[in-house]
Amino acid sequence: MKRVVVTGMGMVTSLGHTVEETWKGLLQGRSGISPITSFDASEYLVRFAGEVKDFDASQYMDRKEARRNDPFTHIAVGAARQALAQSGLEITKDLAPEVGVYIGSGVGGLNTIHDQIYVLKDKGPSRVSPFTIPMLMMNAASGMVSLLTGAQGPVWAAASACATGGNALGEAWETIRRGTARVMLAGGSEKAVTPLGMAAFANMHALSRRNDEPQRASRPFDAQRDGFVMGEGAGMLVLEDLDFALERGAPIIAEMVGYGSTADAYHVTEPAPGGEGMARAIRRALQTADLTPEQIDYINAHGTSTSFNDSTETQAIKAALGEHAYKIPISSTKSMLGHTFGAAGAIEAAISILSITNSIMPPTINLENPDPACDLDYIPNQARSGNVRVAISNSMGFGGHNTCLAFQRYE
């Protein structure tokens, strides 16, 4: 099997429109969560989120193309362009068939669905945009990135709810390992803070209702957590066959070494008791990476700030890693970014890599009253310096999906 390295990263989040802006905000322990501005949420049960604000799609694509694409595609293209720029990769005519794109989303073009339903209702069927289907379809982001960059290898869209970003990266890694492509641009994108999205998740009683203190609402592993916070964002990595990356003199940021993907087969929204499915995903990632628990230096947790998830993930980490689990620094960056659903696994993979390259781990903010059921080291409230050689990133999704990705310092 071929070795796979990361040569470029891109991010668009509620903390910033670039990797640098987001990383700086995370290390400062700054929250990107605030009252909703994209629509009037005054009558909603939950009125705050981690929105991506003031994103200018015309920086990354033609204005005409931008009008014909949903906002989730806009930020996907932005993050993809950033990742390609850092990698220095030129997709030539000869290379194009060896470059693939795997970009996933949890819900796809939810903004388009909302807007066009109102057009249909208020103005009639003849006024519905002919671009509606290409805008809302789940594969719109991966297809548009392929069109704009010329990538002609395998192009696909993952959809496994909040594990989507992890699955997209994991399957891209597998694609390069088996020699189907030399380069994969992979990740996830989500822009679901819409009237329908907010109402639906609020009515599920899944969201925090701390409307008076939105920046303190996402509090993973805290005893007073009361639900997750909706977030928006996109995260992209350029993955390459190591030999190809060395041949072209690419900037190698880190190496991706492991991937585990499992299902709970238990419940649509609740994780399996004891985190059994997540534990198997962690073990599988370590097995494919040929790593032992003692070699893990940092975990970016799924850590949604819900009662079930945080305690179950804690159990999963302990089940998979044994006594060493108590010695590993862990953080949930959803405490600052909110839960970006299909993008979360990709954004958090990039954050895990940044922890390796910068030897510093972001905090879990708002962790003020630790839950006795969550008794590991969650890096409360302040970033922590430390030698991070190996990091893993966990993701769990509605439907019982679990993924774990493993990265290590390139040597």
UniProtKB/TrEMBL annotation:
<dbReference type="Pfam" id="PF00109">
    <property type="entry name" value="ketoacyl-synt"/>
</dbReference>
<dbReference type="GO" id="GO:0005829">
    <property type="term" value="C:cytosol"/>
</dbReference>
<keyword id="KW-0012">Acyltransferase</keyword>
<dbReference type="Pfam" id="PF02801">
    <property type="entry name" value="Ketoacyl-synt_C"/>
</dbReference>
<keyword id="KW-0276">Fatty acid metabolism</keyword>
<keyword id="KW-0444">Lipid biosynthesis</keyword>
<dbReference type="InterPro" id="IPR000794">
    <property type="entry name" value="Beta-ketoacyl_synthase"/>
</dbReference>
<dbReference type="GO" id="GO:0006633">
    <property type="term" value="P:fatty acid biosynthetic process"/>
</dbReference>
<comment type="pathway">
    <text>Lipid metabolism; fatty acid biosynthesis.</text>
</comment>
<keyword id="KW-0808">Transferase</keyword>
<keyword id="KW-0443">Lipid metabolism</keyword>
<protein>
    <recommendedName>
        <fullName>3-oxoacyl-[acyl-carrier-protein] synthase 2</fullName>
        <ecNumber>2.3.1.179</ecNumber>
    </recommendedName>
</protein>
<dbReference type="InterPro" id="IPR020841">
    <property type="entry name" value="PKS_Beta-ketoAc_synthase_dom"/>
</dbReference>
<dbReference type="InterPro" id="IPR017568">
    <property type="entry name" value="3-oxoacyl-ACP_synth-2"/>
</dbReference>
<comment type="similarity">
    <text>Belongs to the thiolase-like superfamily. Beta-ketoacyl-ACP synthases family.</text>
</comment>
<dbReference type="InterPro" id="IPR016039">
    <property type="entry name" value="Thiolase-like"/>
</dbReference>
<comment type="function">
    <text>Involved in the type II fatty acid elongation cycle. Catalyzes the elongation of a wide range of acyl-ACP by the addition of two carbons from malonyl-ACP to an acyl acceptor. Can efficiently catalyze the conversion of palmitoleoyl-ACP (cis-hexadec-9-enoyl-ACP) to cis-vaccenoyl-ACP (cis-octadec-11-enoyl-ACP), an essential step in the thermal regulation of fatty acid composition.</text>
</comment>
<feature type="active site" description="For beta-ketoacyl synthase activity">
    <location>
        <position position="162"/>
    </location>
</feature>
<keyword id="KW-0275">Fatty acid biosynthesis</keyword>
<dbReference type="GO" id="GO:0004315">
    <property type="term" value="F:3-oxoacyl-[acyl-carrier-protein] synthase activity"/>
</dbReference>
<dbReference type="InterPro" id="IPR018201">
    <property type="entry name" value="Ketoacyl_synth_AS"/>
</dbReference>
<feature type="domain" description="Ketosynthase family 3 (KS3)">
    <location>
        <begin position="1"/>
        <end position="409"/>
    </location>
</feature>
<dbReference type="InterPro" id="IPR014030">
    <property type="entry name" value="Ketoacyl_synth_N"/>
</dbReference>
<dbReference type="InterPro" id="IPR014031">
    <property type="entry name" value="Ketoacyl_synth_C"/>
</dbReference>
